[in-house]
Amino acid sequence: MTAPVLDVSGLSLGFRQDGRMLSILDGISFRAEAGKTLAIVGESGCGKSVASLAIMGLLPENAAVTGSARLMGRELIGLPAEDRRALRGAEMAMIFQEPMTSLNPAFTAGEQVAEALRLHQKLDRDAAFKAAVAMLEKVRIPDAARRARQYPHQLSGGMRQRVMIAIALACRPKLLIADEPTTALDVTVQAQILALLDDLKRETGTAVILITHDLGVVADHADDVVVMYAGRVAEQARAADLFARPEHPYTVGLQGAAPAAGVRGERLASIEGTVPDLRAPPPGCRFAPRCPFAIAGCAEGAPPLAEVAPGHFSACLRAPLDAMLGAAA
Amino acid sequence: MTALLELRDVVKHFPVRDALGRRAGAVHAVDGVSLAVAEGEVLAIVGESGCGKSTLGRVMLRLIEPDSGSVRFAGEDLASLSPAALRARRRDMQIIFQDPFGSLDPRMTVAQAIAEPLRLHRVVPRAEEAARVAELLRRVGLRPENAGRWPHEFSGGQRQRIAIARALASNPRLIIGDEPVSALDVSVQAQVINLLRDLIRDLRLTFVLVSHDLGVVRHVADRVAVMYLGRLVEEGPAEHVLGAPRHPYTRALVAAMPGAQTKTPPLEGDVPSPIAPPSGCRFHTRCAYATEQCRAETPRLEGAAHAVACHFAASLPAPVERSAALGGGERLARLQGFFRGNAPSPIGMGDYA
Fold first, then answer.
1. Per-residue pLDDT for A262 more than 70?
2. Secondary structure of residue A299 in the 3-state scheme
3. Distance, in angstroms, between A143 CA and closest chain B CA?
4. N or C: where does chain B have the smaller number of CB atoms within 10 Å of the terminal CB?
5. Contact A288 B349 (CB under 8 A)
6. Which residues does residue B8 pair with via DSSP β-bridges, in sequence order?
7. How confident is residue B6, by pLDDT bands cut at 50, 70 and 90?
8. What is the domain partition of chain B in residue ranges?
């Protein structure tokens, strides 16, 4: 196996608030490999977005991070701010849900892509703008030379997200983190953007981390999946294995709750209750209060992420779950 | 079945003004839509942003006045009603919005929010009000003890339940749900979808679901109407429209559903501006099958049970089959069976859930 582009190990994160520490991430680990898409999936508050901000070094002052995140072998946690800034854009880049708020309304699309190029490469203004137009062509913006001279408000939502991708990929980063990149877009445009990310990943060998709440998107576009729940990794597997044989009860429930999955006319398999309050998380497994398979031991300590099948990890005392079904399974 | 709600040739344009306040065209939000919703039916109106589906939902309740065309509720033309008569009629027609944070008044307790429509429509005598509020809360799966609490004390899913209880307060016959579960997390979304389905069945509600999410639509709707740039392009029973779509646009929508795993290439381009919609068939700028005729002539919505507005509906190739990518077979189905019982955790950690 080749060395991963990003290797996150035991990453924990908390925010100091009113003299207390609010723990958001509790020792998460995962790896992103070149030319592959790792999906991090979970519901609001599970910590999936904040994990990527920790990697990028975009957290506010009151955050406390421990553990390790290595990019091409280089430790990111504890790196001085200016070193981290030099890596952002050049080695790792990020795109967000709402491209309108990430783009500067006062500059044209081409100028913003050119700026990213000029920051990290020694290019003069004209050469940078030319390279920017080429980049906009690469993200398949039709009539790129004309669009490069337009301002963000003159572009559609899908086009703006393409510009963001062009900026992010301008300097050929090793790692691209896409945080819900298509959630604000219409479904036909979402399909275009995700197909574009797939193609660019294949062409450039960039490792992509796709943060999403949508299991359908994961099924269509991810190679590997990390399922997060309440600040911890619940399950981790190759995408095909996760969908064929989920081994954490939360993943089972999530798959049943996705309306695209269930049988029409049948009740959806909803997970009762709500995500726990991280100010007072339940003891032991954080999913136990909502889990139909819970036993007394589940309330006693955080279950370790254990390998239940080759390359397939589940943080559940009851895994493999076939035992729940009796001998027939 | 008789139609509870009937729309005929509804048109609604919103004027657009330039920086100097001069009229500079109009957004063609709804452009000649005719639809009937039968009593007890769940009709979904689907389409992408800007297709006019939300405007159409509001026109149905006369929250927005159409420019032309008629809206009849229980055989009565809503436009002919006096303001007072319309207010009284509204008792029968309610709406649930997408954002459960914006639709509840933060200065009203849950009990006050639900009691407001009870009083407005004089549904029950004052003495029975508290009991009715408690009954409505139970109906939507909330504990009546919470009646005195404020909206901010509840989660998004619970707030949407409160909004549903408020909509049910006047015993309406028709409810419009405008993206009612779109702002919720997947697991909570499933709870609210199940609740809506139970309520529709138990209270024999007529329900119009406005949604962009075909997954949700597939679970709730009996019939589906697909809109594109202000017009209906396809309309029929849900299993036909979503299972064997006939219009090229509906096919693209179904293929673009996450998890569909079809190898159909995504639709190119963006939805054109509704200020200057394309001539002829409005979809022709993005349609792989478009011809000169499509650019020139507007196709009519034709067909009895399953209607489609496409010049070439009869000659298009068969749609690509969907593979059920998310299905994990019988093992998964059996494991998920444990989640359908609505049973709390067997080790009783209810305070944390």
1. no
2. helix
3. 12
4. N
5. yes
6. B70
7. very high
8. 3-228
B14, two tokens: 């919103």
Contact A192, A162 (CB under 8 A): no
Residues B207-257 pLDDT 10s: 999 999 998 999 999 999 999 999 999 999 999 999 999 999 999 999 888
Judged by CB atoms closer than 8 Å, whether chains meet at B193 and A259 is answered as yes
Distances (CA, A) of B11 to B34, B42, B235, B279: 10, 23, 18, 17
B3-228 belongs to CATH 3.40.50.300: yes
pTM, whole model, 2 decimals? 0.89
| Shortest alpha-carbon distance between residue B100 and chain A (Å) | 16
Query: Are A274 and B328 within 8 A, CB to CB?
Result: no
Closest residue of chain A to B323, computed from CA coordinates: A261
Query: Residues A3-57: pLDDT tens digits?
Result: 899 999 999 999 998 888 899 999 999 999 999 999 999 998 899 999 999 999 9
| CB pairs < 8 Å spanning A and B | 215
Is the ipTM beyond the 0.85 threshold? Answer: no
Q: Could you give the angle at which helices A249-257 and B186-202 cross, rounded to 10 degrees?
A: 50
Q: What percent of chain A has pLDDT over 70?
A: 97
Cα B174 to Cα A100, A187, B4, B5: the distances in Å are 37, 28, 8, 9
State how far residue A125 is from chain B, nearest Cα, in angstroms.
30
Q: Is the peptide bond before A320 cis (omega within 30 degrees of 0)?
A: yes
Alpha helices in A65-156 (DSSP H): 81-87, 99-102, 109-120, 125-138, 144-147
A-chain residue closest to B267, CA distance: A188
Read off the tokens for A170: 């301008």
